Amino acid sequence: MMHYLILTMVAIPLFGFLMITVLRTSSEKWNSGIAIATTWLQFIASSCTAIYWLSSGHHPVNEKDWTLYTTHDYEFFFDFFFDKVSAAFVLVGSFLSSLVCLYSRTYMHREAGYRRFFQTILFFFLGYNITVLSGNLETLFIGWEILGVSSFLLIAFYRDRYLPVKNAVKVFSIYRIGDVGILLAMWLSHHLWHANVTFSELASYHEVHDHIAHYSGLALAVSLLLVLSAMAKSALFPFSTWLPRAMEGPTPSSAIFYGSLSVHLGLFLLLRTYHFWEHQITVRIVLFSIGVISFVIATGIAQVQSSIKSQIAYGSIAQIGIMLTELSFGWIDLALIHFAANAFFRTYQLLVSPSVVSYKIRDQFYHFVPREKHVPRGLSTRLAYGLYVLSLREWNLDTLMHRLLWNPVKSLGKRFDFLTLSRTLWVFAGLLIAGSIALYSNYSLPNQINRFVPFLFALAGIVMVLKAFTERHNPFIALVMVVMNHFMVVIAVAFNEQYDWREGLLYISGVSVAGLAGYLILKRFKKFEKNLDLHQFHGHSHIHPGVAFAFLLCCLGLSGFPITPTFLGEDLIFSHIHEDQIGLAALVAFSFILDGLAIIRLYARLFLGPHSQSVYEMGYRAS
Amino acid sequence: MKSNPHEKGEHTLHGFDEAETLHHLHHHLPAQAPLKDFIHHNTLHAFQAQPFHHGIATASAIFGYRVSPELKEYREWHRSGKIPDHYINAVLERKKGAEHLAEWRELLLNKKFATPEAPRIGRLRSHWKKHYKIDLDALVHPLLFRTLCSYLDQGIATWPFPITSLSFLEAIRELNQISAVKILKGKRAQQLLNKVDLNITDILAELVGQEVYYHDYLFDLCFAHQGWSGMVSTVESLPQSLLDPRRISLREAIIFELLLEIDALDTAFGPIWAPLSQHIPSNYSPLFSKVAFTQYREVISLWQEALEWSFHDPMVVAIRESPIQSSSSVVSSQAIFCIDDRECSLRRHLERGTGNFETFGSPGFFGVAFFFKPLLGKFTTKLCPAPVTPAHLIKEVGTGTSTSSEVHFSKHAHHPISSVFLTQIMGFWSALKLVIHLFFPRISANTSSAANHMHADAQLTIERDPSQPKEDGLWVGYALDEMTDAVERFLKSIGLTQQFGEIIYVVGHGSSSSNNPHFAAYDCGACSGRAGSVNARVMAYMANHDHVRSSLVHRGITIPATSRFVGALHDTTRDEMFYYDVATLSEPLRALHNKNEECFQIALDANAKERSRRFASINTTASAKVVHEQVARRSVSLFEPRPELNHATNAACIVGRRSLSKNIFLDRRSFLNSYDYRVDPDGTYLHAILRAVAPVCGGINLEYYFSRVDNQKLGAGSKLPHNVMGLIGVANGIDGDLRPGLPSQMIEVHDPVRLMVVVEHFPDVVLHAIAQDPATSEWFKNEWVRLIAIDPIQHHTSLLVNGQFEPYTPLNITLPQIDNVMPMFESNDENLPIQILQAV
User: What is the pLDDT of residue B584?
Assistant: First the structure.
């Protein structure tokens, strides 16, 4: 019975999303109707499931459903899991989504992109439900990726304006860090368990404990990577600045995504893997510290915010910080209640946020007390003012991110400006041929050298993707470089470990088809849109929404989104990197982050932002 | 006012005069006050010294605004019949002569024009990006906006800006000196900030270098974020628009921004970098150099006139055909409404109902200008048109009530300790509230309600106690003579000097909406964006005063002792009426009032039904009563971004006796100002009326016009993503510029046509009335508002062209006749044509 119930809860959002996508109707009634029906059905289904589950003894239920791929030591399967954590998240999620869909039905009336809005909401809803019902990291990762892309699309909902698009790219890049955390955690846990472990297996104390005792370093690394992912996704210190900037879409979407559901998913990840890290005192200390720091800093920043939405955003982060500390003490139930309360509270706060003007002005009119003249002096004023300025500047976290993360990458990338497409293609062809021959002939190099060959190829890949990331002129270079990077990764890993060439093919097939399709689309597009440089946003979706959508699909394929076999291949490829090859794994992971970013940047620059040829129709940049 | 070289057309690069440039900036920046004082005005007021079509063309070329619908829109309207062919011909014949008709028709209908040149604004500063590869806006704007917003914030932040007793720049200076963490990072910027006699010129010398570019540089700088610059400029000139006062000037904001720019450049390039002027090409032409009136602009202007005449010409036909002698049947009751276009339909329903009503229109402050201080209020609000400064204060005295509160806006939600517990407890309460609000919308703490403006049963200090001293320089209440003057002026200006009904309602208006930061834009424009209830009560009180009445007799107005004035309020969103001081009516009048109340109720139901034709969420075929309930429910829904459509579709203003417009179906598109030329043969009252009509109705009309044609740059864009900033404005996201103007939800059904004012008087009197005051005359002569005079005896019409009246003969068309309007509302959601109403 539980089996069917759980599948139903995955099927409803999937069906809703497919329906709104396939129908492509412009009728507001239909579009909002599908969304409302989907979310309400899900709410009913999840309530029934919860009741049934409670009445049948509320034991955690694991459902291994569908094996996609097996080799002798590897299995990729979909797995779902239901316990109180999933129950809380599914219930709160479907409850709030259904209310927000109902709210948006009228609210979004006549807005350009009505259908796109509900489609993206349902896409998000699908990702959310897969994530919170997932039974293993692989399944969770699928949901996680969907959430990332739907967030990007929703922040950039007003795609004709500069700031939403800029912020969408920014948020996507932070999310990407979270993605890689999970990817690496998957890789390490694979080596830790020598199988793709399910969350239910983690729940048995002895098994976990035995393993961790043997591989304490590895286990710690996995936990910390999960924490990193959680920090990025839940906008905890030091990633916090993305959350208020994500509030660019229509208010109800901000309410549900960034006020309530999306932002708690980092917490969910930690709740879900609780049994894995609960015995590691270091992890608990780390969680506690991050929680407290996030709470303190976010509270300070929230207090100085003079805009209503950023105030709510930072308020929410502060509460999530507290939830993290609750979790570090093992108070799961409290954290769950806190999650639900915060989600409801922030959703409502955001939905009524426009009322703040009439409310507060009225309040001020009747209760105003003039401030006393300040008498500054002394150390306490110095510090208080300092804290104020620091909070006003959001502790410079945004600049910090830039300085630590993106600027080094950019300046590194600029060093490869000399790489032209033809030069790189020659090098690439050389490497490809040499690699293939070497692999085909089973030629074995002396062991010492052999250990470095994979690195070499991975590095070549990194160079290409760096070039793609910093390319400013030619979109074709960026696109081709990203594809070539994937080839380099495959060869690198092939040198590392003998594996079935079909796995490599599986991996490459997705990206090359997507890459080729993207290339052809751009090639054709170039015929009627001459200027495709990457210096600025072009906003071509304004005139060519169809092309934009097709190219977006290619981009998703290229960045390993679960619509092509590459997604599976990514995981497979990682399984061939040994647990002692942290460096190689890090390089490959780094190249994954970067190519995702390069691709989404490419898409954003070409198709989003103010349409560069219709200056008079577009808003000015700061608007 | 200082003469300005730019306005005179001297467009060469010249030296820099700080004061003059600041003045020039103030003149061009958006003039929208903080949200609580939303007052409609001509968005492009800076160009009003030029004729309309030239002014907007100049604004477009310089600032990149869209100033009219697009060519393809006009052409589409022509195809769909919205601009009938004969109006194109009529306009072309009048403007270009019959011999050029074919040639110009071809241009209008078929010519492909090249896209206009890129706008001039921003060109100078774009060289930073081009030559220095630095994105100054991205580096400077977020901190600049946040600092300005924090300083001006009226109560969102729980930890307010530490120093607000000093002016903005002084506060920044002190904060920077004392704080352990600096706002400005670099040494140079800090040194400049601390300089005693710091001025803009000094900083520009480092940044830009050559004086000739300073003026344009500052324009580029301020117009990169015209929302914030405009807000600063407005607060500087209207400090009273903030309840919690701040001292800020545009000059200070500019200095701070320039310092931030220096800081950003120093951070990027170290202490040595060349000023911008080194990279400016020598052929740079100044921002305000002459703008050519191109053929494209001329074609657009002709289309625009054709669009306007498509509505105005049939209206003129209908007005000319209206009865010349007004009927003089005796009525039992009269109602004086605001001239607001939203009252147009309610008046029609009331007159055509069973109640034997006569209606009038007058600006909704009813001629009494004062400040109002509600009970327990800490401030006063101005209840009269924005440009007027009242000398009187009306206070509310009597019983006080508390206002409902909303814990979601509570400070505790952000207090470090209480937030944790509050969130836990409040969270589940929020969920419940959300469900309730979604399924049962009702008036709550989130609603801005028309009726909340004044307690219905509160006492007002209308009559002055001679012994009472002035309060804050204001007279508390009116002296008897002042009352008499006010009532006389009021009654004479609307031409109500005889044939008084038994009850005369004075009906102010306000609106109710939820979740609506622009709530003030929905209230009465003649009351500075407030409800008109107090003014209505005050006028009714004065007109009922025995002493006033006996004095009025000597001034030619005899109000029968049995006639009583009753103040009332019409909630235009919910279509509800509130009546004040009914208890003071005599028994027979009370009975009449009860009967009238029913008539009002029927008219309100019908009015709600008429409005509902534009509301997609309502089934308009239901009975008027049912529709009315839905309209009221919808008005306070949290998720309804269109509680009402406000002034959308406004297009005309008729100043004259009701007989001119009574038989015309105007589709709620006209302001209606009652006026009887017989009472005012020399145009004294007319002058006062037109002096208010131009800025109030013209301001509303042009704000709608410009927000409609360029919702991105001159309007506020969609309100759905708006974020409230410091309670003073809205922005998109958290790093966006303030968005003045109207959101797209308010203007989407609006047709961008200029206001046509039709005045019932002889042309020479009208011309004399507008000529007395240069500001008023500018509106009409430069055709930002159009003017037609209708001769009251012959019903000949004349149009004001280039400052002179020319005879205007409308096209020879036959207007459709209609007897029952209601069926139209069940099947149409577009604008309806002018129709002649048959008598009921």
Answer: 92
Closest residue by Cα to residue A359 from B513, B399, B238, B455: B513
Tokens at residue A205, please?
């104390």
Please report the pLDDT score of residue B399 as a whole number: 62
DSSP state of A364: H
Q: At what angle do helices A205-214 and A216-233 cross, to 10 degrees?
A: 110
Q: Which two tokens stand for residue A175?
A: 């999310």
- Written as one string, the DSSP assignment of A192-243 is HHTS--BHHHHT-HHHHHHHHHHTHHHHHHHHHHHHHHHHHHTT-TTSTTHH
Please indicate whether, in this complex, the C-beta atoms of A355 and B726 are within 8 angstroms of each other.
no
Residue pair A293/A231 in contact (Cβ under 8 Å)? The answer is no
Planar angle of CA B37, B741, B129, nearest 5 degrees: 125
Closest C-alpha to B456, from B369, B579, B272: B579
Q: Cis (ω within 30 of 0) for the bond into B517?
A: no
What residues form DSSP beta bridges with B506?
A: B336, B567
Ramachandran class of B668: left when φ > 0, alpha when ψ lies in -120 to 50, beta otherwise: left
| Cross-chain CB nearest to A365 (options B149, B156, B243) | B243
Distance CA B633, CA A9 (A): 35
Helix (H) or strand (E) holding A191: helix A162-193
pLDDT tens-digit series, residues A238-247: 999 999 999 9
| Chain A residues in contact with B159 (beta carbon < 8 A) | 300, 303-304, 388, 391
Neighbour-count burial of A181, counting CB atoms closer than 10 A to its CB (0-12 exposed, 13-18 middle, 19+ buried): buried
Chain A nearest CA to B833, separation (Å): 24
Per-residue pLDDT, B415: 67
Task: Tell me A256's DSSP state.
Answer: I
pLDDT digits (tens, 9 = 90+) for B620-671: 999 999 999 999 998 888 899 999 999 999 999 999 999 999 999 999 999 9
Strands A61-71 and A74-82: antiparallel
Asked whether the beta carbons of residue A368 and residue B243 sit closer than 8 angstroms, the reply is: yes
Number of neighbouring beta carbons within 10 Å of residue A451? 14
Rounded-to-integer distance, Cα B157 and Cα B160, Å: 5
Number of Cα atoms under 13 Å in the Cβ half of residue B620? 19
d(CA A493, CA A94): 42
Q: What pLDDT does B327 receive?
A: 64
Taking the C-alpha atoms of residue A319 and residue A325, their distance in angstroms, rounded to an integer, is 10
Name the average pLDDT for chain B.
91
- The whole-number average pLDDT for the span A461-483 is 89
Q: Which pair of tokens denotes residue A418?
A: 């000399």
Minimal CA–CA distance to B305: which of B101, B93, B91, B108?
A: B91
Q: B583-609: buried (b, 16+ CB within 10 Å) or exposed (e) per residue?
A: eebeeebeebbeebeebbbbbbbbbbb
Q: Do A342 and B739 touch (CB under 8 A)?
A: no
Residue B570 CB coordination number (10 Å): 33
Cβ within 8 Å of A, B 3-32: none
- Taking each helix axis from N to C end, the angle separating B136-152 and B168-178, rounded to the nearest 10 degrees, works out to 100
Answer whether A605 touches B (CB < 8 Å): no
The three-state (H, E, C) secondary structure of A422-483, written as one string = HHHHHHHHHHHHHHHHHHHCCCCCCHHHHCCHHHHHHHHHHHHHHHHHHCCCCHHHHHHHHH
Confirm if B631 and B615 have CB atoms less than 8 A apart: yes
